[in-house]
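seq as requested:
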Amino acid sequence: MEMSKRKARPKARKPQKPAALTTPPSWMTAAGKRLYGELIAIQIEYSGKISRAKADEIADFVDVRTRADTLRRLFRVEARKKDNVSQVMAIGREISSTTATARKLAHGIQFEVDE
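struct tokens:
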């Protein structure tokens, strides 16, 4: 008769380390991940640390910026089509709204400097 091996009990989750906060969220595009990494590096360079709240603010900003870039590409494609004026105007309004949101978020991301 063989002895069956016991499975190890799962360990409790540990709080996230700062290194885990620097990893971009999996839902981001490649361009978004690059921008996220650059902004996180700037924050760490200035203050030597980063909080979960600051990382989330940066992720939100990157999400809105990449959405604006996508809308701009869509605008160019739709503008080439004939008889599509209402769609082009709607995309233009969405670009304006998204850009305004990105500006507000960028203003909120003020890099904290420890002196």
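The CA atoms of residues 29 and 82 lie 31 Å apart.
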